[in-house]
Write a structure and sequence with these properties.
single chain, Amidase signature (AS) enzymes
Length: about 575
């Protein structure tokens, strides 16, 4: 209720202040599908002000939010902040590349002028006592944090099997809906109102796709930037861990968590990445010493339309494209369907046409291993009730261990204002407030995390981490890059996100096409599901963001396949 009233109040204020401008400027600049550079050029030419950008976005939120549920909070001071930035511009003072540009943050990233809830009911309305480093960096670059986006609750580390939480559901805001088909699933099972077209991982790209803001920041532990970017026809960058400080971001595990930009173009993502990265390492996050930023943190200098020429790009077919029978198993796994394969084949042809040296196949060693102990697909992270203590021999405990270690540390950083002090207290609070909707899908991931003994289980963690690195790095990304002398490799849809996340290496998603939304359990007769976005991912070595941005930009410019959601003009 609070969110709706805040949006309505801001909508009225924006609408009243905008009317004279509409009458005097019939060909007024429109934010719909506008890029950050186009907005900056228009503001420089005095064709639009930052205030007018915010007004337009607020009006779009007021018009369409009830169909999409993209935001958990709207900044009540967004118009005032825009006015201040307009005054600075008039005085010749520009803070940075995002001066006056409205962007949104996933609601697990600290802001001190809006709540940060993680979508968890216990944090409803909670404003943390300090700001995330990336929030500070964005505002220093001139960005206006216009909203906090929906998400899968606590980045999808509440409920796994046997009652797994659906994507983009949280107890504070409910379900978010994909703008390319914003309807609930009509099938009687599970019948809980979830979207008919998946929105991707735990981050939300809904509002960026529907032009509620220029871009948004997601967080990624196992694919939650790349998957929703793919599902919402966006560019997404999951950077090397350490490019962007995690200080002030609600964690799952510091070994795999990172934030990253989600935008409509590679250029916009490059601009946001540079603005989010610190000029110097963050003393609150030791990982920020991993990569050296480019001069002036300017990734736009890598936007080279001829950037594919001469690049060696691998095509890993085993598991990513073709189904394979893994060691010790009888039935094949993985692969993509015929329509996805057709679209992906077109993407490979684009690489060739643009002068790339395509190495096909270039299978990832740990995906074609003959020994089960060397097989990445057989070594997933423990993620549900079936992976409780005593049943977790064949999965990595890193996520469930890291959640107890890092979540408790994060709660402690909140000081006396924290509504709960430990993961155990949060679990108990959820049980006490189950009838209020705190745990609609139960909390099996909380449960398997809280049973961890941080001392007694440390040796097991170290062993699992070593195996994670071996399969995702030495016999994974580094292995295939070295074996075939590759600059990067390409993967269909969001499928490359898993190995990149486990390795803590970068991947960039780029929109490319549409494929049928045809689940195994068909929709009722007469229900016409709309097509689903489908893109590609470019995976590279640690700290290779400059090269991946060059590759992704050249691919994007050669294709330009993104289309806006037709239902939200």
């Amino acid at each position: 209720m609070k969110k709706v009233s805040a949006v309505f109040t801001l909508f009225v204020a924006a609408l009243i202040s905008t009317l004279p401008a509409v009458q005097s400027q019939p060909r007024r600049f429109s934010v719909v599908e506008a890029t950050i550079r186009q907005m900056q050029e228009a503001m420089a030419k005095k064709q639009v002000t930052s205030r007018q950008l915010v007004e337009q976005y607020l009006i779009r939120i007021a018009m369409y939010e009830d169909r999409l549920n993209a935001a958990l909070a709207i900044n009540p001071r967004a118009l005032d902040e825009a006015d201040a930035l307009d005054r600075e511009r008039a005085q010749g003072r520009l803070r940075g590349p995002l001066h006056g540009i409205p962007v949104a943050l996933k609601d697990n990233i600290h802001t001190t002028d809006m709540p940060t809830t993680g979508g968890a009911l216990v944090f409803a309305g909670y404003v943390p006592p300090y700001e995330a480093t990336l929030t500070t960096n964005l505002t220093a670059a001139g960005a206006i944090i216009i909203a906090k986006t929906g998400l899968t609750e606590l980045a999808n580390w509440v409920a796994g099997n046997p009652n797994a939480m659906p994507g983009n559901y949280n107890a504070v805001g409910g379900f978010g809906f994909n703008p390319y088909d914003p309807r609930p699933d009509p099938r009687p099972e599970p019948g809980d109102g979830r979207p008919v077209l998946q929105t991707g991982g735990s981050s939300s790209g809904i509002g960026t796709a529907a032009n509620f803001w220029a871009g948004n920041v997601g967080s990624d532990t196992g694919g939650s930037i790349i998957s929703p970017s793919n599902a919402n026809m966006l560019v997404g960058i999951r950077p090397t861990i350490g490019r962007i400080s995690r200080h002030g971001v609600i964690p799952i595990t510091a070994d795999h968590d990172t934030a990253g930009p989600m935008t409509k173009t590679v250029t916009d993502s490059a601009i946001m990445l540079g603005a989010m990265e610190g000029a110097t390492p963050d003393p609150h996050d030791a990982a920020t010493r991993t990569c050296t930023p480019p001069p002036n943190r300017d990734y736009t200098k890598f936007l080279n339309a001829s950037g594919l020429k001469g690049k060696r790009i691998g095509v890993p077919r085993a598991f990513y494209i073709d189904r394979v029978t893994l060691p010790g198993e009888k039935e094949p796994r993985g692969g993509i369907n015929a329509e996805q394969a057709r679209v992906f084949a077109e993407a490979i042809e684009v690489l060739k046409q643009q002068g790339a040296i395509v190495v096909d196949p270039a299978d990832v060693p740990s995906f074609v291993a003959r020994n089960a102990n060397d097989s990445f697909p057989l070594w997933d992270f423990c993620s549900g009730g079936e992976h409780a203590k005593g049943k977790d021999q064949n999965c990595s405990i890193n996520f469930k261990y890291g959640m107890k270690r890092d979540y408790n540390a994060w709660l402690a950083s909140l000081g006396p204002s924290a509504p709960v002090k430990t993961l155990k207290e949060h679990r108990e609070w959820n049980l006490a407030h189950a009838k209020a909707g705190a745990i609609k899908y139960q909390q099996s991931r909380f449960d398997i995390s809280d049973e961890i003994d941080l001392v007694a289980d440390k040796a097991r963690l170290d062993a699992d981490d070593a195996k994670d690195r071996r399969l995702s790095r030495e016999q994974g990304i580094d292995g295939v890059l070295k074996q075939y002398n590759l600059d990067a490799f390409i993967t269909p849809g969001g499928s490359g996100a898993g190995i990149a996340a486990r390795a803590a290496y970068p991947i960039i998603a780029v929109p490319f096409g549409m494929v049928p939304n045809a689940p195994q359990q068909p929709y009722p007769a007469g229900f016409n599901a709309k097509p689903a976005p489908f893109g590609v991912g470019f995976v590279g070595a640690q700290c290779s963001e400059p090269k991946l941005i060059e590759i992704a930009y050249a691919f994007e410019q050669a294709t330009k396949k993104r289309i806006a959601p037709p239902l939200f003009p």
